[in-house]
Amino acid sequence: MSMTEATPLVVAAAPVRYDDRAPPPAKRAADALPRWFLASAAASVVVTLLWMLALVALQQASHAQRKELLTAVGVADADLAPPSSSSSTPSSTSSLHLYAGVLNSLLGSFLSASGYCCQKFAHVRVQRDASLGAASQQRVFLFGLFLLAVGTVSAVLNLGILGQAVQAPFAALTLLYSAVLGRLVLREQFTLSDLGSSVLIVAGVAVDVLAAQLAHVPPTTFTLRSLGALLLRDSVFPAAYTLLALSYTTLLLRHVHSRRLHGQAVGLLAFSSSAGIMAGFTSLATKSTLEVLKAALRHDAARRHHAALELANPFFLLLVAAIPCALVPQLFLLNKGLEFFGTLRFIPLYQAFIILGNTLCGLVYFNEMASYAPRELLLFAGGVLVTLAGVCLQLLRVDTDAPSASSSSFSSAAATETSSALPVTMPPAPSPADPFATAFSFDDMEFAWSHGDVRTLCDFDACKAEIVRLLRSATASIYYSTFLCDFELVLEPATGASFASLLRDAVARGVQVHVLYNPVGDYGTPTLAALRRLLPPRVHLAWSVSDLGPSALTRCFSNNSRYGFHHQKYLCVDGARIMVTGCDVNEERNGWLRRNALGYYWHEVGVVAPCSAKMWHWVRANHVGAESELSDSVSSSGVTRHRRRHYAPFQSAPPFPLVAGGWREENAMVNLILRAQHSVQLENQILISGGSMQHNRVCDALIERIDRAHKAGHEFHVLLLSNAAQQDEPSHVTRFYCTLAVQWSLEHLEHAALQRGLSRETLAQYLLVARLQHHTDGGLIKVHSNLLIVDATYALRSSSNLADRSLSARPTDTELGLLFAGDVVARLQRELLVMYVPALADTLQPGPDAVAQVLAFVRSSRRSCIFPMELKPWSPIWTWFLMNVFVFASEGATGGRVRVTYETTASTVGKTASDASGAASALAG
Predict the structure, then answer these.
(1) Does the first or last residue of the chain, that is N or C, have fewer Cβ atoms within 10 Å of its Cβ?
(2) Where in the sequence is the domain holding 824, given as residue range(s)?
(3) Where are the transmembrane segments (predicted)?
(4) Can you give the CATH number for the domain in which 594 is found?
(5) CA 560 to CA 522: how far, in whole Å?
């Protein structure tokens, strides 16, 4: 059964036949923004950029040039008198600046409103189809971010013209645009309450504008010295406001988080006010930076030699660093508000608090109201009170509309508020939408049962012995797929047999040998030329290379040559037996608690099962599909090139009990976890799951199952083993990302538990997340088992890592796993647990209670190889920021976001001399 990425959560009524040559499905109108809106936004961007260039040109032009240009567009001479002229008054100069700022704000506010609209559109899409991942992964979200960036730059230029307190009220223009776009684009309901709230907010802003105009505040320029003296003046207000604002934001957000009030009025207040306060600090840091830059780069020969010194001053660098420190939380809180509330409800409050935040920063830090007369101060205070009245009206409406909002989940108020925002793009899910819906049920899954002679291998020594046995037993065919294989590594010390020698013996016996190979050498695989010299003639060699790799610029900083790899690992002999995983061979792999060539330990598991007729057909197609002459293949000099495995929008899937990564395998894992009655044992090399940025729902499913057990009062235990670091990765950037991803996953596990009302202490009773470490010398034991065991009865052993790179609707790597069940699972689990905890060798009984016994021992004793992982003591916001940087700057390396195509090329070893050159050119292509 094949699945589309657009509807991976929907149970398919009938299988979809996969066709490599089929064009991608047409984009539905419901998934796109209206064309008139896109055209308006694009035109506004162009006009805004031209307007900003004009403003910059005016700032750099001489007075005579400025007068000539502005006279041409009809500006009165009285407004253009030079500073030394008697006709130059504060009133005329201020008016000119004010009018320029208003014109600039008209377009900038529309772009900001359009950006909010696009981001909300992305949130609604994700609410309707959880498989799309996070809203921030949608192209429409990135387009909205771009519109916000242009609007922000426009506002920043205004900050260079106007004071911060004077600039603040112009943000209310966004309300008018948001109301129109929310109604026409998002189709949100605009009620009389919304109208009244917006009118009060706009009225308050108008009063503030009037106060600013009556005050006649002249524009002021600063140097680094004068700015420092102003910000660090002998006053208690700057420090007090900073402390008060940060304390308010922290305590209110913590209250919302701990009480799960995200969709209620206090959540609306928390997200809008905190984002507005951060916006004030963002504007403060930006305006300060601009003032220093203007002074340092002024066309003044007397100051030009001081420019470099000022720009290298630590105080200036601190101002620059403060911009992202305030901007990142502002954007984060903005999107949290859009996630839980519609634009017509959230944006008015957000804009009101932007105004207040900017006003307070201008008042406290720049002392911009020092020249205000008592009349202007009263007007300004009255405007602020009217604005706050509009805010209160909106908050009261939230409580009135949703008095019974559930506090036990993260259910969004926007779920009902924006239910008509987009047409349905997929068949309706159960109500409420099941976040754990799968394309097939547990009963639809097929397993290889132990009565069918399923055998498990618990360390690499056993895997090597099985490889030797299978290769020697072959009489008709060998199909071998590998990610990493040292064909000359000795597998059997007694005879000196290696993979290459065993293949030569098989070819000599008349066995047909097919090898599907990953030729990318990032992890130490031999080159194609070296492999062809090692393999005997008449071996059918195919190699698979993805089209996903780093850009030319990224290659200057990373030693990765590809982001997608052929990662399937299996050995099928005579179409009768198949070994899934455990068949990659190199010096890094070694037996249990035997140090490898790199100085640490390796943990490997393999499974051998009978190969059914359907499985055998898929294995042959996986190899021969590239070796046969197809209409979309290119053959020259005995080399066949075949484009295959388009992971979006379709993915071909092997028959059960095989799974090949992607959304199908993720669905199988979710089904297994939610089906568990007593225990789950999950081991994986990589742990990247949870949160809105990850497609795979494995960690969410674990917490969901724990929550069900806790509510029912049932005993349930989860053992999750992974690696705290990946020191064998060739890229140091990848190593840090893997370490950061573990922190991300642990934070999400805790966060998801708190969402459901589970305390940290309660969660710890059910779940243990740990790594493996030698119990005597403390050496790292690399978890490479990638195994899921449920109730000591059902299991999945796969090459897939627990990450979107393997388990999503758009995976990056090709994978293969095997579902198996029966008594063999209980025996495998007991053998593994005894390896981890030798002290339980005589007392541990196989069965569903084995995990509970191990967890009880590990919590009371350190005499085992299991060491619990702990959260690092840094802020989750820092983790979120770094994960966003990695995910969105990775060019698809993190998986699940980019369409990947594999080009598989095949030839026969030793066929002709031209084959080698054709193979080399094929790989280079």
Answers:
(1) C
(2) 659-889
(3) 36-58, 96-119, 140-162, 168-186, 198-216, 236-253, 315-334, 346-366, 378-396
(4) 3.30.870.10
(5) 6
